[in-house]
Amino acid sequence: MFPPRSAYLHIPFCHRRCFYCDFPVVPLGDRAAGEAGAPGAASIAAYLELLEREIATAPPGPPLSTVYLGGGTPSLLTPAQVGGLLVALRSRYGLAPAAEVSLELDPASFDQARLAGYLAAGVSRVSLGGQSFDDAVLAALGRRHTAAELEQAAAWLAQAQARGELASWSLDLIQAVPGQALPSWRQQLRQAVACGPPHLSVYDLTIEPGTVFGRRAERGQLELPDADLAADLMELTAAELGAAGYGHYEISSYALPGHASRHNRVYWSGAGWWGFGMGATAAPWGERQARPRTRQAYAAWLAADPPAPSAGAGMPLDERLLVGLRRREGVRLPAWLDGTALAQLRQELAPWLEQGLLLEEGGRWRLSDPAGLALSNGVLRQLLAWWELQPAPAPPSSGAGLPPPGCGPAAAAD
Ligand code: SF4
């Protein structure tokens, strides 16, 4: 396996915790900012010291082709602080020419001057955490911004792209929220397209234990779309965005030609990536390694001088299959599956194969688009259940011809 050429940095600070969020975040209050003297500034500065120390003492590697600063709300950092992190990465690894440097921004947490500062610091791609154009939905999700603030933020990004200052940007939306129906979702999608993002990430709302939504669900107080409606919503998303010219290159990801996220492709391809910061997931050699999810535990972990990750393990094959099936092009079947194991797996997944939701073509498996991708959770769950029943030791993880994963939502996506 080649050394990583990608890095994920986790910025855990947010103003407040959204009702569905179980990411490793540190809420600092509505007035928090990275500027000296602002509420939360000392916490941010202390964390950045730790993060820069982790980068400086990381194993060496080749220049980075992609960098992703996710969170959390990285737009709580000043442009100078973002620039400082990029300097730390340049010092340790260097940045390849035309590297993709992505920064997550939340509406209402930046203005045009701040955006210009980020771009001057070296950011080339922005991921905007919009989630919805409906104020009632935003309030129900516990988001801090309004639809008008989202539209304003999107307009600034579109203008920066038109001026050639920003290479690309993405808009995040959440679908399958409580009370959602097809007509209102269609309207949301059309509003999103009208903002002109070259890339859209559309995630299904997931209910995690310990969140506000998790507690409401336990009490039976959360009315979510049923599985059929959730699949219909996903199919509608694929149809609307497809008609608007977006390619569906991964379950949740749509892009105009030339705007697929290079960093996210690393996650789903099987290539490795460095991960830095509290709660970040790293997989420099394919096998995922999660850092502690609190600042105190992360500081203690760093102070204990953690061992360098060892090369050679590679991504486990079950994970390769799972992340590979998220992509439109699917995944190559590993050679060891020839014979009995492949026959068993085909039998296990027969209903999906017979309905044309899962396709086997030229030694590859892929989910059909949009119907298979819309029902992907069922296929992936069944695949995982089958895998867990396989006798140990698991088949070898190398040589299967599959690509590597990323933090994306798992490592820190917002
Ligand atoms: S969803 Fe995003 S903005 Fe909301 S608390 Fe989580 S990381 Fe912060």
Architecture overview:
- With 414 residues, this protein is an alpha/beta fold.
- The protein has two domains: 264 residues, Transcription Regulator spoIIAA (2-Layer Sandwich); 72 residues, Arc Repressor Mutant, subunit A, CATH 1.10.10.
- Helices cover 39% and strands 18% of the residues.
- It contains 16 helices and 16 strands.
- The strands form four sheets. A nine-stranded mixed sheet has the order 9-10-8-7-6-5-4-1-11, sandwiched between helices. It has a three-stranded antiparallel sheet with strand order 14-16-15. It has a two-stranded parallel sheet with strand order 2-3.
- Strand 9 and strand 10 form a beta hairpin.
- Helix 6 packs parallel to helix 8.
- The chain is globular.
- The C terminus is likely disordered.
- Bound molecules: iron/sulfur cluster.
Per CATH, which architecture of the largest domain? Answer: 2-Layer Sandwich
Total tally of structural domains? 2
Q: In percent, how much strand structure appears in the residues?
A: 15-25%
How big is the Rg?
Answer: 21 Å
Per DSSP, the total helix count is: 16
Structural class: alpha/beta
Secondary structure: helix percent:
25-40%
Unique ligands = iron/sulfur cluster
Q: Give me the oligomer status.
A: single chain
Report the principal-axis shape: globular
User: And the CATH topology of the largest domain?
Assistant: Transcription Regulator spoIIAA
Beta-strand segment tally: 16
| CA-CA gap between termini | 29 Å
Average per-residue pLDDT, rounded, comes to 87
The biggest sheet, with number of strands, parallel, antiparallel or mixed sense and barrel status, is: 9 strands, mixed
Spatially, the strands of the biggest sheet line up as 9-10-8-7-6-5-4-1-11
Runs in which pLDDT lies below 50 for 5 or more consecutive residues are 393-414
